[in-house]
Structures are given as structure tokens and as C-alpha cells.
Write a structure and sequence with these properties.
2 copies of one chain form a homodimer. Chain A is mostly helical. The first copy, chain A, folds into 2 domains: about 60 residues, Orthogonal Bundle (Arc Repressor Mutant, subunit A); about 140 residues, GntR ligand-binding domain-like (Four Helix Bundle (Hemerythrin (Met), subunit A)), CATH 1.20.120.530. The first copy, chain A, has a 3-stranded antiparallel β-sheet. In chain A, a hairpin with a 3-residue loop joins strand 2 and strand 3. In chain A, helix 2 packs across helix 3, helix 4 runs parallel beside helix 9 and helix 9 packs antiparallel against helix 10. The radius of gyration of chain A is 19 Å and the shape is elongated. The relative contact order of chain A is 0.12. Chains A and B meet through helix 4 and helix 7 of A and helix 4 and helix 7 of B. The structure holds a DNA duplex (30 and 30 nucleotides).
Chain lengths: ~220, ~220
DNA sequence: TTTTATTGTATACAATATAATACAATTAAG
DNA sequence: CTTAATTGTATTATATTGTATACAATAAAA
């Protein structure tokens, strides 16, 4: 029996170009939003009835997802959402540490006053949203997006986007961990203060430390349960 | 009159998938190798006769190159190889500084003895190739590739590849500048020594300094002639 | 202004990809 | 061993794309 993979609203339809492409993006969203979890099997027929197409475009979408690294296709067992092994997670976070640090450092040099105010505002809202991890996770996303925008470097954005798909595989938020949202907010505050000071090295350092802590939380969540 | 854009060997033919794709990769190579220089106009008909196809696949290739950011299409004036303005060059090198520093830092942690030996060997060959900028530029490329491989981080590679196209736009080597190859070799030596010591921070720092110098050379080459 | 070079647009036909369906092969469960 | 569920494969018709060609529109040069 198919579980509830469906989004409430204008689901089902997608005619940008080909059906295969539509299925691809729908499944990508589903994985990104955690409606399919890592390791879970994705059945062709199930997706086909869900999106009201035949199995052929689903299979085409599977091939794309495989080359994205989002699923693993094995003969006669079909598709499973990819799982990152410990090494991959470590490598991924090592890179995130570099990129977030860079973003913070660059932002310290280039952020406008409005952007800095907005970052503080996001932290205030985060304080208010205490106890609602979903809202907090969303505010967290906004925070990091604003940081990257304030960095004023289109190539930093490109580099970051190159990692987005892989990051989607572990989007089950660390904000579920008790106490994590509060420490995260404090870490963010240090970063924004450094940006306000215009101290690039300090912002870089605090951002790296922040991701370092996030890495620990992530690894604990994944491999030591 | 069409200039000599042709490669000597097995040119003309390319049938991987579609003609448009073939034209796209041929033009990409041509730009990367400097057979078309930034700002230069690319005429549809010229490319068509060169590669022995009609204008239609050439136009399709143009659209791809545009979305790669390699050419600029303006109505009724067609395609010109994109030029990076000073800002873009600065942003690009800022990112290169980060990525090369990271690669060197990671390499200090993960490089094998064989890889370190190979890096030294490349520098020896560079010493021998004195006075031959073409060979030296190639050795330089090998050096950086080896560095990235030794860093053992697939996401660093992804991030780096995301910038590759833009970098191609300024591949007219800085090695033409008198004295530049020698200083570059010395800077490389500092990096490899730090890697051999396993000193990650030092390797990172020296690599950043190296790119910093390269940036100066590049900007001087581009904007102060 | 007239001419020429070059790009944009339209058309026609062939080639290919897409999508649905039916059926065979394989695995895992009973 | 048999059966049920699921994936791989093959076959079709249809839609889309690729390609070449001819012609119109535009811009730059004479």
C-alpha cells in the first residue's frame, strides 16, 4: 500500500517538458523533503500510479536520479534512496565547513546594513519559535541563504549549489536534538556579530566552529544510536 | 576569411549523440584553448563550414554555451566569447584562493608518499622546462590536478568543477610574464614542503598566498596594459 | 542610400525519443 | 516448490526533436 507521499496542493501535474523530467523533479523534492528516507526502496509502479503515468517515464527519472547520486539502482531490486556512509558525511561536512566559513568571511566584508539587520531579525524569530523545530529549521535555511547572498560572490554560490543534492540526503534536521536549536542560535549570533564588526577572519572562524558542532550532532544522530 | 581555428588531427567528426552537442563541445574546447579569445565574435556560418554542418545545430550549441556563461548572445549581433569584468575576475580568484587553499590543506592530511613524490617530480620537470611556457603551463595543470586528487574529498572536486567553465575564459596563461614561472615554482615548493610535513594550516596558507600572487599577475595582465 | 554580410524565422522531412502496454525473468515469501 | 510481487525487456504508435534549406529582417559599410 502506498504511503502518504502526496503533497496536498497542485500535485500530480507537471508538463514543463517531458513526463520523465517531471517525475524526476517530483521525486527529487520528495527525497529532499524526507518523504522518502535514505535506504528506503522506491517502487516503480507505486510512483507510476501516484503521478498517474506509466512506468516508462518513471524509469527514465530513476536513471537521472542515479546520475545525481540520489538513488542507487541494483538489478532486480530497483531503486533505493542513497545513503551516505560515514566517510561521505565527513567529506561533505568538511566542505560545508569551508564554504560556510567563506560565506561568513565574505559577508563580513560585503554585507549591507539591511542584510545584517535581517540576520538579527531571523535570530529573534528563532528565539520566539522555540519548541517548533520545523519553523526553526526553516528559519535556519533562510539564515544561511541570506549569508550566502551577502557574501557577494557568484562563484561561491555555484560551488555551494554543486553540493546541494548530496546535502539533501541528510536533511532530516539536527534540530530534533534537545538543546541543539539553542546552541545553534548562540553560534549564529557570534557569526552575525563578527559580520557587524566587519571582522572577516572572526566570522570565518565562528562559522567553521558552528559547522563543526553541527557535524558532531549529525554524526551522533546517524551512526551512534 | 576564417582564421586557423582547426585542430590538426581527427577534427571535424563528432557523433556522440547530436550534432548540436558535438558543435558545443568543439566550441568549448576552442574557447578553452584560446582559439577564440574573449570578446571575439563567433559567426554561425563560419563554424558551420568549419564543422561541416548546417547553421541550425550551431545555433543550438550557441544556446548551450550561453547557459554555460561562455558566450553572450545579443540580437542581430550573434555570439561573442564572454569577457569577465574586473569584478568577476576578482570574485573568481577569491573562490580559487579558498578552494586551492582547501585542497592543499586537505592534501597535507591525506596525500600518499607517492603523490608527494610526484609533486616534487613535477617541480623538477618544471625547472628543466625553463623557457618553454607551454610545457610549464601543462605541468602547472598537472600539479593542481594532483593536489586536488590528494585532497581525497569528492565534494571539493565537485565545487571546483563548478568553476571550471568560467576559469576557461581566462586561460591565456600568466606564464608568459617574465619571471612568473620561477616565482610560481618557488611558491609551489613551499606548498609541497608543508604537505610533506603534514602541516595542514601551513599548506593552506601558502596555497592561498600563491593564488594571491597569481591574482595580481592576472589582473596586471588583463587590466593594466 | 545602396550594398553586403550576417542573423533571425519558417518550413518540410527524416530521425529519434517518449510513453503505454504486454510479457518474460527474477527474487522473496509462504 | 509454488506463488506473488516486482523489475527487466520488447513492441508499438505518437510526439518531439534534429537537420537542412530557403527567405526575410537587420545592421554595418561603401
Amino acid at each position: 500500500m502506498p504511503k502518504n507521499k502526496e503533497k496536498p496542493a497542485e500535485n500530480k501535474l507537471n508538463f514543463e517538458t517531458s513526463l520523465g523530467e517531471g517525475v524526476h523533479s517530483q521525486l527529487k523534492d520528495a527525497i529532499r523533503e524526507g518523504r522518502y528516507s535514505p535506504g528506503e526502496r522506491i517502487r516503480e509502479a507505486e510512483v507510476a500510479v501516484w503521478l498517474n503515468v506509466s512506468r516508462t517515464p518513471v524509469r527514465e527519472a530513476f536513471r537521472r536520479l542515479q546520475s545525481d547520486g540520489l538513488i542507487i539502482l541494483t538489478p532486480w531490486r530497483g531503486a533505493q534512496v542513497a545513503e551516505l556512509d560515514r566517510n561521505q558525511v565527513v567529506e561533505l561536512y568538511a566542505m560545508r565547513r569551508v564554504l560556510e566559513g567563506t560565506a561568513a568571511g565574505f559577508a563580513a566584508l560585503h554585507a549591507t546594513d539591511a542584510e545584517i539587520d535581517y540576520l538579527f531579525e531571523l535570530l529573534r524569530q528563532d528565539e520566539i519559535a522555540k519548541g517548533d523545530p520545523a519553523v526553526q529549521a526553516n528559519l535556519n535555511r533562510l539564515f544561511h541563504e541570506t549569508l550566502y547572498a551577502a557574501a557577494r560572490n557568484r562563484y561561491l554560490l555555484k560551488a555551494s549549489n554543486a553540493l546541494a543534492d548530496s546535502l539533501a540526503l541528510l536533511r532530516s534536521t539536527t534540530y530534533e536534538i534537545p538543546g541543539r536549536p539553542d546552541t545553534a542560535r548562540q553560534e549564529h549570533l557570534l557569526i552575525v556579530n563578527a559580520i557587524k564588526e566587519g571582522n572577516s577572519d572572526k566570522a570565518d572562524l565562528f562559522a567553521r566552529a558552528h559547522i563543526e558542532k553541527a557535524t558532531q550532532a549529525r554524526l551522533a544522530l546517524l551512526f551512534e544510536e
